[in-house]
């Protein structure tokens, strides 16, 4: 069973090992690595490009939140 896109975002947020003491760029890289792992493992559970586009938007939001 595939997760909802909201569950995907929650999973990444929960499993990010980004620490507040790291630079914003380092924190973003942790989110990015998790997003790539999710995309690699679950891409076939969603209609074509849906997960990829969602993750790209998610990462863009994280970049803004981190001031990058």
Which properties best describe this structure?
single chain, mainly alpha
Word description of this protein:
With 68 residues, this protein is mainly α. It has three helices and no strands. The protein has one domain. It has helices at 5-15, 24-42, 50-65. Helix 1 (5-15) crosses helix 2 and helix 2 packs antiparallel against helix 3 (50-65). It is elongated and about 35 Å long.
Short note summarizing the structure:
This protein has three helices and no strands. The chain is mainly alpha-helical.
Structural class comes to mainly alpha
How far the N terminus sits from the C terminus, by CA atoms, comes to: 34 Å
> Strand portion, in percent?
under 5%
Name the helicity range.
55-70%
The shape, in one word, is: elongated
Mean pLDDT metric: 89
Q: What is the total tally of β strands?
A: 0
Secondary-structure element pattern, one letter each: HHH
**Biggest pleated sheet:** none
Report the total helices: 3
Low-pLDDT sequence parts: none
Instruction: Domain count, please report it.
Output: 1
* Rg from Cα: 12 Å
